[in-house]
Amino acid sequence: FCRTIFQHLMHFFISLGYIGLLLGSFLAGSIVPFSSEILLTAAIASNANPWICLIICCIGNIAGGMTCYWLGHLGRLDWLVKHKIIREDQLTRFLPKIERYGALFALLSWLPFAGEAISVCLGFLRVKTVPVLLYMSIGKTLRYFVFFVSTLGIISLF
Predict the structure, then answer these.
(1) What is the pTM of this model?
(2) Which domain holds residue 112?
(3) Could you report the per-residue pLDDT of 55-89, keeping only the tens digit for each?
């Protein structure tokens, strides 16, 4: 049943062309478990401009990751202290380190399953938006670029 739904979704996004690629990449970058790599491969194999496909996938996936970041931003740190999940002294000791180095974790936001959690946590901990966006963009773009080059290499064999 799930396989059929997944196949229909993939077919739907592929039928939308570049817009479908953008939407699928956005979903894959957010909390929805979805494979934008399949969409990217299908788009390239159907003779769409591969560089435009790469750019669209990066934009969509980064936007999805930043959506996770903003969802995390909706949480409140004072709730953690109020409900004794973390002590206030731990929070005051930990937050400057997160503020200083936390954005680097956004480099790992491309990881399947863990990437969404990392993005949500960075938002929850109020790590500065611009560095998170920068490192997230670097990480996700590098991942797509490696996949992109590999895909072009494999397609050229046929």
Answers:
(1) 0.84
(2) 2-156
(3) 999 999 999 999 999 998 998 777 776 776 667 77
